[in-house]
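User: Can you predict the 3D structure for this chain?
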Amino acid sequence: MNFRNLISFIFLFLILGLVQILFLKNLALFGVAFCFIYLIGILILPLQIQTVPLLLISFFVGLMVDVFYDTMGLHAAAVTFLAFLRPHWLKFLKPNGGYDDTSNPTIQEMGTGWFLSYSLPLVFGFCLVFFFADQWGTGGFLSVINKSLFSSIFTVVLAIIVQLLFFKRRRGI
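Assistant: Here is the predicted structure, written as structure tokens:
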């Protein structure tokens, strides 16, 4: 990763974090679907990033959101869990020829079907950890599953819309 890409990822994390904190903090569709748009930053980090830096970046991004949400580490724990699962899930989805070393897991580079199969289970795992920790002992199992399912669908749909609207398209040869 060169310096230009590093600066662009830092800028992306700042923008996504600000959007999450300022606009999406109180957004809940029908009281069950919450949006965690800042997860796009973790999901589209380069494929060649090592596990330890990925875990540290995820933890600090989650901690940044926790400071403004006053959730005492829920986001940090859930995003770190997502970052822990990400390399294993990428190995599971690995094509026969392997991944290109310079590619990022975005819609523009991998396609919409691959991005859905990549992001939806990871975001669902994030939501499960988040809502289980959030409703520890107070909510029912079905309530956690319901919120996790609809929040992950809402987050992934919004992530696809954001990528289609704001990310650069790949140029053909």
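The first strand starts at residue 28 and ends at 29. The chain has one domain: 3-166.
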